[in-house]
Amino acid sequence: MTDLERVVRKKIEKYREDEWAIYAHADHDGICASVALNYLFGDIETKFSKSFKPKDIPEFEDKKLLKICDLQLSERQIGNLLDQGIEIVNYDHHEIRDMKHKNYLCLNPKKLFSKEYISSSGLIWKIFKPKEVAWILASGSAGDLAIEDNLELFEFTKQEYPELLNGISLESIYSSKIFELAQIILMAFDNPEKGFRILKESIAKPLELYNTELYERYLKKRESIRNFFEKHKNRVVEHSKFVLIDTSGLRYSGSYSVYLNLKSKDEKVYIEYDSGRLFFRNYFGSEDVRRIAKLFGGGGAHGRSGGARTGKTFQEVYRTIRDYYENRQTFLLDF
To answer: Which of 94, 169, 214, 306 is the most core-located residue (most Cβ within 10 A)?
Structure first.
């Protein structure tokens, strides 16, 4: 047991199971991290937020310890929880909230390991090494595109679950069942409690997820996205450096850029515009998408995926990004 694991376990073992709770993002990383913590420490009350930056925090009545997974709470929100007498262990991997307080422990991997590509799921592997749920933590990490700074997790998963993963290169992982399982888990985003329960029931049999309604919904989603690109080529604008997709008014926003990026396997940045909401993806290239997201006041946990909101039209967004590339040196000096 490492010193870090001892510190974390000491925090937890002061309390009974009913005295602490988990608050997590409703996406693949948050759900996978929560399932792993429940596996490690018992059936813990777990609540989810659809936003990774929740505006309001639910009540945690009679709780003395709160674990945060894949949620970027503000310093004010954390301070309010501490003022309520709740001890906090923060596994978030976005911005570091390293506040000085005896009842606050910041476990952000950027702080602990000075690494960018470790998600909350990957952090749990780094600390506890729970082999029985390694595939779940690998799915959460792969879904969050947090791979190369946690290759030990993927190497172990490849050895123990060759049916899920047969290589640890980015391309191998993106084309693996481990990555597909992450996309299946993501189908529970609107009902994360249900996805949480289904995943807990699948710990010993990961392929059972292919027999759930989540997989059926995943297939419908994939077919819908494929049909969009076949029928609406006029809503896709290509540049030598990026591809911009207008998905305004469509279901599954954020997923069209993922689909096209994985299909193309090139170094372009793939961007979606959904009525002012922007998604940035760059799975195979070297461009840090946070630089582009920053043009619109956005950002991201790492350089491969980001987001923003804007009042600009689709055409205005295209021109802004085009100008960024055509006047790149000027823009870089501004950063």
So the answer is: 306
> What are the helix and strand counts (H, E) for the chain?
15, 11
15 close to 65: Cβ distance less than 8 angstroms: yes
Residue 205, number of CB atoms within 10 A of its CB: 9
Q: How confident is the model at residue 329 (pLDDT cuts 50, 70, 90)?
A: low
pLDDT bracket for residue 41 (50, 70, 90): very high
pTM metric for this prediction: 0.94
Pairing of strands 45-49, 20-25: parallel
Q: Which residue has the tokens 């799915």?
A: 139
Give the E-state strand segments of the chain in sequence order. Answer: 20-25, 45-49, 65-69, 87-90, 104-106, 236-238, 242-246, 269-274, 277-281, 299-302, 305-309
Taking residues 76-86, report their average pLDDT.
96
CATH 3.30.70.20 fits domain 233-334:
no
Q: What does the pLDDT look like over 311-326, one tens digit per residue?
A: 999 999 999 999 999 9
3-214 to CATH, choices 3.40.190.10, 3.40.50.720, 3.40.50.2030, 3.90.1640.30: 3.90.1640.30
Check residue 149 and report its DSSP letter.
Answer: G
CB 103 within 8 Å of CB 88: yes
3-state secondary structure of 105: strand
Map out the domains of the chain as residue ranges. Answer: 3-214, 233-334
Q: Cα–Cα distance between 305 and 290 in angstroms, integer?
A: 8
Residue in the structure block whose two tokens are 């978030």: 92
